Structure formats: C-alpha cells, structure tokens
What does this fold into?
Amino acid sequence: MNNKEIISALHAVLYASGDPIGIDRLSEVFGVKPEQVEKAAMRLSENLKDDESGIELLRLDNAYQLATKKQFADYIKKAFDLKRRTPLSGAAFEVLSVIAYNQPVTRAFIEQVRGVDCSGVITTLLEKELIEERGRLELPGRPLLYGTTKNFLRCFGLSDLSDLPPLPKDQNAVNDVGEQLPISEELNSEAEIKED
It folds into this structure.
C-alpha cells in the first residue's frame, strides 16, 4: 500500500468502526509498520482540518477514533433528539479525579481519600463509561480495581493520561483536583454521546 491508500483505508476503517482502534491492530490490518499508521493518521488529521470537515481524528492512548467536532454537538443533539442528561456532580468529579491520578485503584482507596461512601458515584461513572473495571487486587476479598476509559480521554480532550494537569502541591487541595481537569462546557452531555 502506498501512503495515499493507507490514509484512505484508515479513514474508511475508522469511519466504519465508530470505536477507537489500536495502532497495532491497524498496522496488522494494513500490513504496514505502526510508524506508517501514525504518519497516515497525522496526514488524515491535517486533511480533515484543511477540508473544514465536521469530523476530527482523535488519538486516545495508542488508538485512533473519528469523532464529530464539539462545535456541532447542538446540531447532533437536535438531529437525534438527544436529551441533556443529568450532569456530573461534584462528588463524581472528585471520584473521577482520584481514579485518573492514581489508577488502578480500589473503591476502599477512593473512600479513604474522600472520607465517604462512593459506591453510587462509581456506579454512575461506570454507566457513563468514564471508568471501567481493571481486574482484581490480590488481597483478601479480591477488591475490584478501577481505571479511566478511552471515553474519559475523549470527553476531557486528552490524548493520554500524561496530559492531565499536575496535582496541587498542597495536600489539603486534593478535593479541588476535579476543578483542574480540562473539561469542556459540554462534557456533562458529551459524556453520554458517543460521537461517530
């Protein structure tokens, strides 16, 4: 495959998928090196910007996904009659922050940091697909471990976890971490919309 064919094939595969696809899988599918997939992805991203497309290419960890641009969210909601869902609470942002900065973590760890029961908030974040189960800790009771998802990265506009803002140096400011996340104004509705 030449570079132009890889770019076109990448666009087609990501469009058809709707979900993120890993670089290694794309490399395998196209029969090229991962570096060639990354170069094709950069070119595809530039093409989408140059064409003033309503679609953009997102990099989420070691995966790519096509998504609609944020400025068209209102039109998408109207077209599909999507209702605004319940926004994330302050408690949800706090739990999400604890998980994002310390993952993988147990519910007990989160509750120790926050000082209150978090089972309801964790359930909400799982339903919104902002966090996921990451196995079990090898301790008595084998507690579940939680980590963030690619949907979390997409909703917060992050390529990977290294893009998170630094933690405050003041240990008393741990509860304010949620306010530092680079959240878009539409996150509370965007979190539930899987943009394809």
Q: What stands out?
A: The chain has a mean pLDDT of 82.
